[in-house]
Design brief:
4-stranded antiparallel sheet; two-stranded antiparallel ribbon; 84 residues; mainly beta
């Protein structure tokens, strides 16, 4: 996916990610497209992509934390948040 489509549902919520083996709290903007959820970068509110061994914003190509390259299915999202 490139930058966030206007058809995607966008929500902002506190969620937990595993970063370098540890849980980290983020207040993240999450986009829902179909049955997939993915975080939007803080710089451009875009999805992220892999590029030459790094995770980058799809809009400005700045390197971002690998957590922004994650995505979850509806089932994974519900399971992840049912445990919190």
């Amino acid at each position: 996916m490139s930058t966030n489509n206007h058809d995607d549902e966008v929500i902002t919520l506190r969620t937990k990610y595993v970063v370098h083996g540890e849980f980290a709290d983020y207040i993240a903007t999450i986009a829902k497209s179909g049955d997939m959820y993915y975080p939007l970068t803080m710089c451009c509110k875009a999805s992220a992509t892999g590029s030459m061994g790094e995770t980058c914003c799809r809009n400005c190509y700045e390197i971002v934390d690998t957590v922004f390259g994650c995505c979850w299915t509806e089932t994974e999202w519900q399971e992840m948040h049912a445990q919190q």
